[in-house]
Amino acid sequence: MLPAKTIVGLRAVSEALGINPSGFDMDSWVARTPCGTTLCIWGHFEIFMGRMPDGCWLTAAGREVCATFGGNVVTENIEAAGLDYTDWLFWLPKWPDELFNQYMFGERVRAGQLAIERFIAQRATPEDLAAAAELEKPTFAFDYGVPA
User: Fold this and answer.
1) Which of 25, 40, 56, 145 is most buried by a 10 A CB count?
2) Is it the case that residue 102 has pLDDT exceeding 80?
3) Residue 31, Cβ density class (10 Å: 0-12 exposed, 13-18 middle, ≥19 buried)
4) What is the Cα–Cα distance from 57 to 133, expressed in whole angstroms?
5) Residue 21: band (very low, low, confident or very high) from pLDDT cuts 50, 70, 90
6) CA distances from 142 to 22, 82, 113, 118 (A)
7) How far apart are alpha carbons 56 and 64 in whole angstroms?
């Protein structure tokens, strides 16, 4: 079972991955690099649901990472979306082998889109899908900060 809003949000993420492929990276929730900002599936989903990261730090590799991990905000957002923090969709090593391999060997966006659709197919009931069809798709309004 998946809430209709979650289905619509995940499908909007899938579309966004195709619009800005360089903004998709399953290595971190949100990362700012010299080439712009990258987000994983959950990072994109959070933005579609109207939540922005509020804490930033540098990784050992020198990448600035931002997230709302303080105060269990991420956990609360996941539960409100009818999801679980351990769902395979949000952890690349848990992806089905063919999708994991597709992602690792260069077809990141297509693998991400297929993973989202497979996850929805596994979790959504026909009633969930019908309710989602009635909702308006959210607009993606995130500036990846890609230099000109």
Assistant:
1) 40
2) yes
3) buried
4) 39
5) confident
6) 14, 23, 19, 25
7) 6
